[in-house]
Amino acid sequence: MTDTVNIKELNEKIQKESAFIDIITLEINKVIIGQRHLIDSLLIGLLTGGHILLEGVPGLAKTLAVNTLAQTVDAAFSRIQFTPDLLPADLIGTMIYSQKKEEFQVKKGPIFANFILADEINRSPAKVQSALLEAMQEKQVTIGTNTYELEMPFMVLATQNPIEQEGTYPLPEAQVDRFMLKVIIDYPTMDEEQLIVRENIAEVFPKAEKVVKTADILKARKVVKDVYMDEKIEKYILDIVFATRFPGQYRLDKYTHMIQYGGSPRASINLAMGAKSFAFIKRRGYVIPEDVRAICHDVLRHRIGLTYEAEAENITTEDIITEILNTVEVP
User: Fold this and answer.
1) Bridge-based pairing state of the strands 259-261 and 155-160
2) Element (H, E) at 304
3) What is the domain count for the chain?
4) Per-residue tens of pLDDT for the chain, all 331 residues
5) In sequence order, what E strands does the chain have?
6) Rg of the chain's alpha carbons, rounded to an integer?
7) Of 185, 218, 251, at which residue does a domain stop?
8) Phi, psi of 141 (to 5 degrees)
9) CB–CB of 214/74 below 8 Å?
10) Which DSSP state fits 143?
């Protein structure tokens, strides 16, 4: 396979095609201080078409980051605040009777946009959450008897607050699995927070400019697929995912009774796609093991089910993923 791929040529192509990533990052950094990992994750979602679940306490710029990303791309953006009284029709739209035309007409909902910010997704009941499922998975929406294709690029960025559990509806495993990445957002450093305070009390709050068209994003998605991935890296990805299913086969016997279920084939696909796009962001034409390791926690943390035994011993999915990365042989 290596003979058919000219790494030097591919590298030059990726260097050229990925130049716009720096421009987007520059615009986002005008508004968002720090949060490098969050910005990289949003870019991975943008380059792969994967949906992202952001989790963190209020005030860590989750909504602002998504808003800012949408501002840098010349695309339609919808922000939906999820509440307990939200109905599926509020999301996808409904049929409305027109007295003038004496017929039912479709009134499309806010889901018909390129970027959807589903704010506090766990605040709404299951029927509303499941209304998102068809859109996320099939990239289409059914209203009445008609099915409508969603315009590409289409990306759902959902936020949830891990602290408040009262009045929330946890996302079912099947739906969580539809998110390519689950990103945990942490507090900024003291220096970063000082800059955040300065920025917010200044006379004018910075604003990101539109620097990319949707056509550029769709073109970049095709180029990301060209990033070279060696068979050894493919095997490395499979070893990591299989270690979540059969820990005993990977000298991780202590986790045999702690893992209820491991990552699905979606985990393997998303690790491969995520690693390729991470290499693209780093302006490289080939994937290295570090690319896989960099995104591994975000891809797997919501795909491993823990037993009561693990919870009783305070073992988290983070611990298990870290242990797997330390045990599985790196190519």
Assistant:
1) unpaired
2) none
3) 2
4) 444 567 888 888 888 888 888 888 888 888 888 888 888 999 999 999 899 998 887 777 777 888 888 888 888 888 888 888 888 888 888 878 777 777 777 788 888 988 888 888 888 888 888 888 778 888 888 887 788 888 888 889 888 877 666 667 777 777 788 899 999 888 888 888 888 888 888 888 888 888 888 888 888 888 899 888 999 999 999 999 999 999 888 888 888 888 888 888 999 999 999 999 999 998 888 899 999 999 999 999 899 888 898 888 888 888 889 988 998 888 8
5) 51-55, 73-74, 77-81, 93-98, 103-108, 115-119, 140-143, 146-149, 155-160, 179-184, 212-213, 259-261, 305-306
6) 21
7) 218
8) -135, 135
9) yes
10) E
- Side-chain-side CA neighbours of 142 within 13 Å: the count stands at 8
| Token code pair at residue 202 | 């200044």
- The string of DSSP codes covering 163-232 is S--TT--PPPHHHHTTEEEEEE--PPPHHHHHHHHHHHHSSS---PPP-EEHHHHHHHHHHHHHSB--HH
Same domain, 25 and 74: yes
Residues 178 and 241 both lie in one domain:
no
Q: Are residues 242 and 158 in the same domain?
A: no
User: Which has the closest alpha carbon to 21: 73, 62, 57?
Assistant: 73
Residues 71 and 143 in one domain: yes
Q: Which tokens belong to 179?
A: 């998110």
Dist CA 126 CA 149 (whole Å) = 23
- Per the structure, the complete domain to which residue 236 belongs is given by 227-327
Block residue for tokens 């716009």: 20
Answer for the pair 267, 180: CB distance below 8 angstroms, yes or no: no
* 74 & 118 share domain: yes
156 shares its domain with 259:
no
